[in-house]
Amino acid sequence: xxxxxxxxxxxxxxxxxxxxxxxxxxxxxxxxxxxxxxxxxxxxxxxxxxxxxxxxxxxxxxxxxxxxxxxxxxxxxxxxxxxxxxxxxxxxxxxxxxxxxxxxxxxxxxxxxxxxxxxxxxxxxxxxxxxxxxxxxxxxxxxxxxxxxxxxxxxxxxxxxxxxxxxxxxxxxxxxxxxxxxxxxxxxxxxxxxxxxxxxxxxxxxxxxxxxxxxxxxxxxxxxxxx
Length: 227
Description:
Blueprint: E1 10-11, E2 18-21, E3 29-34, H1 45-50, E4 55-60, E5 64-67, E6 70-72, E7 76-79, E8 82-85, H2 87-108, E9 115-120, H3 122-133, E10 140-144, H4 159-162, E11 166-172, H5 181-193, E12 196-202, H6 210-224
Parallel strand pairs: 3-4, 3-9, 9-10, 10-11, 11-12
Antiparallel strand pairs: 1-2, 2-4, 5-6, 7-8
């Protein structure tokens, strides 16, 4: 996604650093956008710019520095048998993200029922992990070219709690980083858990195309503003 000409200032006094685009007038909701591994919060600024002005949007920086302007939520190695992660770091980042969501809701005065957490690649992984283990913290979540970590299984919420969530799975059919089979697994798992979700596939790679961006905005707007 193209970045905004001028990013909001970086705020670093909560559990995670972030940049906030406040809503114009009374906020209709809050959207948290999480970036992929090795990137930073600015990478999703173009997506933030497409969301309605009535929504407050937080561009969230992952907690682990990897290099100049490069961050992650956990280390990952891509092997022939699939991604291998630092599970302890992933769990620590999940807990930290949940703390941050609550802190930001308090700061903005926007309730959990009007909050969506979403992310690209590793950001989608973190969004799913937060929502599926504490569904009372958000209204819904979106996985853009990501997956759901099986490591969160012991912390999954009850079926009754998960029934309040809405989710979006978005994946490119030609993704060479996280193959589309991961979206198939997410689809099957959310169905088993009883989570309402939409599953959309695109003739794309590991990326957020203009069509993916438009569809994400439409889904988010429908969830937070139209309901």
